[in-house]
């Protein structure tokens, strides 16, 4: 698993053909857990490498991608495009996960954000 800062939500590896979901987030609805699994596994099946979704210290949900050195099958250009596509297509999901993290783990008052 690559070095990332913060709390890992989930990850997928094309090399080991494995998916990881952090059980600290077990209260996230199963449908959202399934959507995250599909998102990560499809990404690594299509692009290769390792995809890690993690929260930074401010509660921002980040996507960290790494590939093994000399991995000729890893699609670096496709990776950038796929991440942008995920961020656009799954914007509401990603923002909801950030709010969840800020409320539950950082104990922030998100009531103002919910009114928008």
UniProtKB/TrEMBL annotation:
One Pfam entry name: DUF6145
InterPro entries listed in its UniProt record: DUF6145
Name this protein carries in UniProt: Uncharacterized protein
Source species of the chain: Jutongia hominis
Native organism taxonomy: Bacteria, Bacillati, Bacillota, Clostridia, Lachnospirales
């Amino acid at each position: 698993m690559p070095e990332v800062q913060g709390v890992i939500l989930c990850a997928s590896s094309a090399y080991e053909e494995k998916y990881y979901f952090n059980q600290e987030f077990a209260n996230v609805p199963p449908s959202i857990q399934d959507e995250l699994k599909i998102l990560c596994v499809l990404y690594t099946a299509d692009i290769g490498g390792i995809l890690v979704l993690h929260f930074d210290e401010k509660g921002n949900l980040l996507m960290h991608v790494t590939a093994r050195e000399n991995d000729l099958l890893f699609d670096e250009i496709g990776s950038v495009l796929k991440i942008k596509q995920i961020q656009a297509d799954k914007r509401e999901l990603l923002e909801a996960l950030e709010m969840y993290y800020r409320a539950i783990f950082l104990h922030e008052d998100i009531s103002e954000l919910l009114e928008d």
